[in-house]
Amino acid sequence: MPRFEPRPTNPFPLLTDRADGERAARDFPLSAGQERLWWLRQLDSSHDQYHITGGWRFPAGLDPSAIATALAGLARRHDILRTRFVLRPDGTTAQEVAAEVEIPVVRAGREWRAAVERAASEPFDLSRPPLLRVVAAETEDGPGLFVALHHIVTDRWSMDVLARDLFELYDAATAGRAPRLPELAVQYGDYARWQQRLLDSDLLRPGLEHWRRTLAGCERLELPTDRPRTAAADGAGASVVVELPEEATAAMTAVAWRARASPGVVVTAALVAALSAFTGQDDVVIGAIVSDRPRPELQDLIGFFVNTVVLRVDASGRELTFRDVVARTRDVWMAADAHQDVPFERIVGAVGAGAEQQRNPIFDVVVNHAGDRTALAEAPGAPTWWYPELPVTARFDLSLTTQLVDGRLRATFVYRPALFDETTIAALADRYIRLLAHGAAAPDRPLHELGPAGESGMPLGGEDPAPRATVVELVEARAALHPDDVAVTGAGGELSYGELNRRANRLARHLMERGVGRGRVVGVCLDQTVERFVVLLAIVKCGAAYFPLDPDFPPDRLRFMLSDAGAVLTIVSPSLAHRLPADATPLLVLGEPDLTGYDAGNPPLAARPGDLAYLISTSGSTGAPKSVAVPHQALSRLVAGAPRYLDIGPGATFLQAGPLTFDVSVLEWTPLAHGGRVVVTGTGALLEDLEAVVRDHGVTTLKLVSPQLDLLVERGLSALSGLRQLVVGGDVVNPRSFRTARELLPGCRVTASYGPTECTVLATVFDGDSWSGRVPIGHAIPHTRAYVLDRDLNPAPVGMRGEIHLAGDGLARGYHGRPGLTAQAFVPDPYGPPGSRMYRTGDVGRLLPGGAIDFLGRADRQVKVRGYRIETSEIEHALLRHGATSAVVLRAELDTGPALVAYVVADESVDVPALRGRLRATLPAYMIPDHLVRIPRVPLTANNKVDRTALPPVTPARSAAAAPAESGLEARVAEAWSEVLGRVLAAGEDFFDHGGHSLLVPRATAAVRRLLGREVPLRLMMRHRTPAAYAAALLAGSLPGLGADSRLERLTWHSRTLGGERRVDLFVPAGASGGTRLLVVLDGSEFVDVMRLPAIVDRLVRDRGVPPTAAVFISPADWSSRRRELLDEAYADVLAHELIPQARTWLGERCRSGRATAVGASLGAVAALRAALRRPDSFEGAVALSGPLSEHRLGPADASPVSPARLFLSASREEADIVLDDGLNLVEAVKRTGEELAGRGHEVRCAYGDGGHTYAAWESMLPHAISWVLREDRARDVR
Amino acid sequence: MTVSQEPVAETVRLIVDKQLNLSAHGYEFGADDDLWALGMTSLTCMGLMLAVEDTFRIELPEEALKEGTFRTVGTITAAVEAARPASGTKV
Predict the structure, then answer these.
(1) pLDDT score recorded for residue A317
(2) For A169-173, A685-689, A745-749, A1163-1167, which range has the lowest pLDDT when averaged over its residues?
(3) A1145-A1150-A1154 Cα angle (round to 5)
(4) Which domains does chain B have, with CATH numbers?
(5) The architecture CATH gives domain A968-1036
(6) Are the beta carbons of A334 and B43 separated by less than 8 Å?
(7) Once rounded to an integer, what is the mean pLDDT over residues A437-465?
């Protein structure tokens, strides 16, 4: 038994700083848990899941004045009830205890329900205590008192404390005596300060290390949801309650003690096991809520004493028993308990788990075992608990609360109905309670034996065996009965059943002469003419199997395939003969041998049900091709059941638009066996001839694969209006296309079908309505069993994820000549008749409540990116919903690391880059593709599957994440965030992927607020998580604010000297005349986008008599070259020689002559001053804001004669903290430089403001600066 | 080693103190103080049970497996005494 290190002690003294009787307002830090709740409250102000409610009935009556006295006493006793929570300007939070707070009572009388509901649901303003509402009600059972508190001031345990204190205070008030309550040694604020001292110390470092180690490489538990996750989850919840009978509960408790575990551990272990089954994941990571009052002094306090810990339990192991899971859970619990002092947010930051908006970091499922509760007094007439019915709120996707009620364990599952159906959670709850009951009864039996078969409602066995008549017998019978009916039509004319049969008979006799017989394989390489069925029928009549070959395959591959299959002969259409290797098998070119001499009557039946009918090569994405060998009995099963779901009988005309090498072509046997007709003809690579074929041949029944339907929907379905049935195959059918087809083809039945080649074309079909945005694959076809099984091959309960297994008569014999591979894929079927097999599809699905199967993805297409298991099909579905015609999402290994790439086919009206933004509305951020690539069409393999290898590789122009900032604002946001993170964050990097967590958001936001000098909502960071995106979002709302006739133009300009395309903004004032002045503004994008200088100039001109002024704003080509450019000795010359003449050209008549004024801030201030001093020919003055002026040489190298310039220099008083290279601080540097320049004869104004080195400071300085430098000379004379 | 009753109670006291972190701040507790009221949780109780079994190399019998056994230093000491071979023998 492992030894457990107890939890480390908080070595700081837990003291109160309150002198007795003092009631002055004091402030404290927030405890770690409060910080989390405070943050969650900031994220969404419209609703709040973090309310704690409770109530009591007062059978002996409720005295209003006594209760008021009691509440006042309660507020006096517990500081926390008088506490307000505030955000300080520096982004830190504090709780301030007010000296007095009144607790009002809503006297609702008999109309109490609305009042109770309002009290329970209305959001609290955390800065306005009390965070406690009280409703006095007159219920049918007498007076009741209802309270609602914000969780930040209470917890479940506290509610017992609150009840005890309140009743004692009430009794004392009624009796007119002093209350008898234990004295409180400390208050909540003392606890929070005590905890913060520990958090600020280095003592938690080992704990953080523990969590980092424990959670390394952990996998998020992905519950199969019934609805796609949307970004906008609300707090609505619903619950499913199950109970363990008394006897089982006692057994469970005994098991707990015997395993040296607590009941809380055992109920958690059962949840772990149930979730592992539910998700198919071994690595089970959940959260646990623990009540934590680590000191005796804290027992009698009201407050938030709750920690969140992460439990990561390894549920792997084939023979895992319940006792094993209990022991593992116990060890995990105890380790977590010992390290619970590390706040959850720090764990999140340490493991880089991000803070998914609307998704809890690290886990979505939480367990909460309500433990040792204090009972209320049991004196007659004492109040009893009263819980009025209230809407359920869900704080997590799923949470389990267990408690013992009258000796029975009650398990309450609270879930988000936005994600789950009740049936899904009920199935999970049922599984859970069974696990607990069975585990308690037989803790040493392997868990996989506990999953009883049949609970899933899975149809098991019992279907009638398929008729054994082969297609040979069926077609011969048709030919005998209706010889003149058309069997095959298409390119090359028509064949009646009689003709088809006779010609096949002749060819069969010829083939037999050439050694074709039972057990043989014959390669076929045929063009799409009616001859196809003469050949195929002839081969199967011989008892041999046909093996379609793709003429486009390289000869080596064909040679390999033929020899691998042991083909004795290859039959080829004349036009394709040259494509085949001459040396692989003997060739028979159709039309060459003269068959007229052969008997046209049926040869003796050769094919037996067990003989192979055909081979189909499935290339697979990797490795050598393998051939699926399908016997006649499997083909007979397809053919026999087909009329029950396919319209292929007499009068029907069937077309499938795929090549013979694709197993869908096997469906063509079904009309031939039932008297319908088959169309065999080419439809063009992009189905461009399909409409003509459908029309010309009167097609009634059309089989397409899903991408083909998408293609047709895009083109319009009108030409298909004559169809009676449209069958769409493929595991993922675009629900939009499916719905469109149903709507636009009213007389047509639209069917979805699913089936791997290994199960003879089809396994399931779906005819019903589309379901929760998906088209499920539906129900098993006749003579077929479809199972959804968990890892232990137990039926997965309804709603739970499992692998789809197929069984029944349709199973292929296996992979031709590959016994090992066959044994892996075809395994014994524990649910079928003895000796039967089932095929493991590798597809993941789940059973829906109605019994249909929902396809969830390929087991091998679940990708893991940044720790998330992602079902790419989910993203594909979302893209389809947002207007893509088809989409393929892959995980790609790029230089920058693994990334999600979406390949999208869409018509021109769809803005593909904008799709990403729309996806954000419906998908969590980790599912947003990193790259969206528009492609003209999805490349398909010969078998009409997505050819992943043919998709264009993604070559990001440069790593998006590490790219340098594109604007000054981006760079400054990145800088501010980097400071908060304590590490350098690039403009394109996600704050939350780089150690950021939600509790750092207020500080990071405060830095930006200071920079901009305006309010920025905290939640902006949750949506815009990179400095680049954040900067863009900050600017999204800012309008230029110009007068009607002024305008701002954004241009692109190329400087010969500096190189690079750069942004230039041009401000053209209203009513400008020839005398217009010109500002040249450096770091232009910041002055335009952030400081809004154009609007400032516009206003100054309109209101304050500043002469008409135009402005040209020049931005660096990219932020990384800004410094070099601004400090370049030649920069002033570039402005003088290139930019000013160019600006005058743009401005035309308005601004022909005169000198300009340079404007810049920070390094831009240096460059602006230099321009004015070195190029007096072009500049008459400069505005230099917060420039590190003494660090750089400003004037010209030679002591040329001074041409007086008008120079405005400014700094902010806080910039005295900025020390420059020469030892001066920035304010001194400005002052000193101003004096020097004035001494040299320039006209200088130095101004000192507030706000630091920020946009806000500069923006507020600009009106003064601009009006001073631009004022008319007349004004200058009289100053 | 020969163990008499006093040292058992003292050892139990030390284990309890370590598991519950009580005397770190000079908090005194007696043999009859209710540990549940001093902040013991079912998890710390588990840790306490494991530590007691470990230290005394005993396995508590079925009838001792209940919350009451761990209520006070006294009750734990009694359970340990009962589970140990007769007092005074070599362990």
Answers:
(1) 85
(2) A685-689
(3) 80
(4) 5-83 (1.10.1200.10)
(5) Orthogonal Bundle (1.10)
(6) yes
(7) 67
- Does A293 contact B39 at a Cβ distance shorter than 8 Å? yes
**CA gap A714, A726 in Å, rounded:** 16
Q: Per-residue confidence at A346, pLDDT binned at 50, 70, 90? A: confident
Query: Does A298 reach chain B within 8 Å, measured CB to CB?
Result: yes
Q: Which region holds residue A108: left if phi is over 0, alpha if psi is between -120 and 50, else beta?
A: alpha
Topology (CATH level 3) of domain A866-936? GMP Synthetase; Chain A, domain 3 (3.30.300)
Q: Is A182's Cβ below 8 Å from some Cβ in B?
A: no
Q: What is the mean pLDDT of residues A92-97?
A: 91
Summarize the confidence of residues A831-835 as an average pLDDT: 87
Question: Are A975 and A983 within 8 A, CB to CB?
Answer: no
Rounded to two decimals, the ipTM of the complex is: 0.87
pLDDT of B66 strictly over 50: yes
Contacts of A635 by beta carbon, 8 Å cutoff, 6+ apart: A470, A471, A613, A614, A666, A669, A760
All CATH 3.30.300.30 domain ranges in chain A, comma separated: 866-936
Does B62 touch chain A if contact means CB atoms closer than 8 Å?
yes
Beta strands per DSSP E along A790-885: 802-808, 814-815, 826-828, 837-847, 853-858, 862-865, 868-871
Q: Which two tokens stand for residue A264?
A: 């809380």
- Residue A392 C-alpha, separation from nearest chain B C-alpha, in angstroms: 28
Q: Flag whether residue B36 sits within 8 Å of chain A, measured between CB atoms.
A: yes
pLDDT score at A476: 95
Between CA A48 and CA A55 the distance in angstroms is 20
Q: Do B41 and A333 touch (CB under 8 A)?
A: no
Radius of gyration of chain B (CA): 13
Q: CB-CB: which of B21, B38, B51 is closest to A7?
A: B21
Mean pLDDT of chain A, nearest integer? 85
Q: What is the CATH number of domain A627-859?
A: 3.40.50.12780
Q: Is pLDDT at A189 greater than 80 in this prediction?
A: yes
The arithmetic mean of pLDDT across residues A790-801, rounded, is 82
Instruction: Give the integer Cα–Cα distance in Å for A718 and A712.
Output: 10
The CATH number assigned to the domain with range A221-382+389-449 reads 3.30.559.30
Radius of gyration of chain A (CA): 39
Which pLDDT score is estimated for A922? 63
Start-end of CATH 3.30.559.30 domains in chain A: 221-382+389-449
Q: Does residue A623 register a pLDDT over 60?
A: no
Estimate the crossing angle of helix A32-43 against helix A188-200, to 10 degrees. Answer: 100
- Listed ranges A41-45, A1068-1072, A1143-1147; the one with the highest mean pLDDT: A1143-1147
CATH of A471-607, one of 3.40.50.740, 3.30.420.10, 3.40.50.980, 3.40.50.150: 3.40.50.980
Residues of chain A with CATH 3.40.50.980: 471-607
Question: Beta partners for A244?
Answer: A409
Residue A1068: what pLDDT?
85
**Are A1218 and A1253 a contacting pair, CB within 8 Å?**
yes
Closest-CA distance of chain B to residue A296, Å: 5
- For the stretch A518-538, pLDDT in tens is 999 999 999 999 999 999 999
CATH topology of domain A26-196: Chloramphenicol Acetyltransferase (3.30.559)
Q: What are phi and psi of A258, to 5 degrees?
A: -65, -35
pLDDT band at A1019 (very low <50, low <70, confident <90, very high): confident
CA A1139 from centroid of its chain's CA atoms: 47
> Nearest-CA residue of chain B relative to A300?
B37
Asked if B59 reaches chain A (Cβ–Cβ under 8 Å), the answer is: no
- Residue A337 sits at the chain B interface (C-beta within 8 Å): yes
Domain A1047-1277 of CATH type 3.40.50.1820: yes
Of A254, A258, A371, the CB nearest to B41: A371
